[in-house]
Write a structure and sequence with these properties.
This protein has eleven helices and seven strands. The chain is α/β, with parallel strands linked by helices. Helix 3 crosses helix 4, helix 4 packs across helix 5 and helix 7 (181-191) packs across helix 9. Bound molecules: S-adenosylmethionine, geranyl diphosphate (GPP) and magnesium ion. It comes from Streptomyces pulveraceus.
Length: 293
């Protein structure tokens, strides 16, 4: 036997690596992420989110002291607004039955997946580039004894391990700014059944402003992402058999979350970029729900 034949015989199965050096960087970013603003909010009730909040602040729920009691109340309120955001997204998935399968593209630590299962009783499959996040989400699913219904995998959302037409609905919750939108919507369109629903909540730059503002560039640099414009979303959907059923500007609904977060001890330094860009109109927080036709 030659050396080449020997190597071929004993070579271990190939584990696919990241599809690009950029995806490798993003996987490392989320593997290393442990910001208190995310972990302490998740600790409130075990739903761990990596997205932002919507809705009015309930000032009666906030303490009037800046001690640990006041901080605990503020954290619970920020978390309530983040969970309200996920409920709003799930509310646009349409009529989902217990036998359906949902796909969370860019699932993070899995908070939205758990909420989706609790709401619909169905299967929820998630993909993330980060092995740490997938482990975290699967650990939470086991703790909740829903591991038969909620599962996260380490996988590129542009090539998901799900059959054609296998999902009743799919979504991106603040995860579409890491990929090319044409590639992304082509993949959702493949995975969704005809008549299925796609929903995204995303931050996008506003073509009415002209080009990405300095605040948008700051957010891109902060998260190593590439925020798309509203126009790009609608064009890429139209090109991939996704027909918008609702386009909702959530910008006024997310500003209270940011204004409250800016007063907390858990600030990360990106708060002003969000507040300024939402206020000057250069950036928008949007929900887009689309029918797969
Ligand atoms: C801001 S987090 C959002 C997490 C989650 N959707 C949530 O609402 O909590 C962005 C997520 O997108 C994922 N992501 C980015 N690019 C991806 C890709 N090409 N394939 C799969 N996941 C990706 C990251 O791994 C991360 O989990
Ligand atoms: C709306 C936009 C542009 C989102 C970019 C994607 C992103 C990083 C979302 C929040 O993640 P996180 O919850 O980990 O961030 P933070 O630590 O700031 O709470
Ligand atoms: Mg967060």
């Amino acid at each position: 036997m030659t050396n080449t034949e020997l190597t071929a015989t004993v070579a271990p199965p190939r584990v696919p690596g990241p599809a690009s050096p950029y995806q490798g960087d993003i996987a490392r970013y989320w593997d290393g992420e442990a910001r208190p603003v995310n972990l302490r909010l998740g600790d409130v009730d075990g739903l761990y989110h990596h997205h932002y909040g919507i809705g009015e602040v309930d000032h009666s729920a906030l303490g009037d002291t800046e001690d640990s009691v006041g901080e605990k109340k503020l954290i619970a309120e920020l978390h309530r607004l983040e969970s309200a955001q996920a409920e709003f997204l799930l509310g646009h998935l349409g009529g989902i039955g217990r036998d359906d399968t949902l796909v969370d593209a860019g699932c993070g630590r899995g908070g939205s997946m758990v909420m989706a299962h609790q709401r619909f009783g169905c299967k929820v499959e998630g993909v993330t580039l980060s092995a740490k996040q997938a482990d975290f989400a699967n650990h939470r699913a086991r703790e909740l004894r829903i591991q038969d219904h909620v599962r996260a995998r380490v996988c590129n959302m542009l090539a998901m391990p799900f059959g054609t037409g296998s999902a009743a609905a799919s979504w991106n919750n603040e995860s579409s700014m890491y990929v090319d939108l044409n590639d992304l919507f082509a993949e959702h369109s493949r995975v969704l059944e005809v008549g299925g629903r796609y929903v995204t909540i995303t931050g996008c730059w506003n073509p009415r402003y002209g080009q990405p503002s300095k605040w948008v560039s700051q957010i891109n640099a902060h998260f190593e992402c590439n925020i798309h414009s509203r126009r790009e979303y609608l064009r890429a959907m139209a090109d991939n058999r996704l027909v918008p059923q609702a386009v909702i500007d959530l910008t006024p609904d997310t500003l209270p979350y940011w204004e409250l977060r800016a007063t907390s001890s858990l600030v990360t330094g990106i708060e002003d970029a969000f507040i300024n860009s939402y206020r000057d109109g250069s950036f928008q927080y949007l929900l887009i729900a689309a029918d797969r036709v």
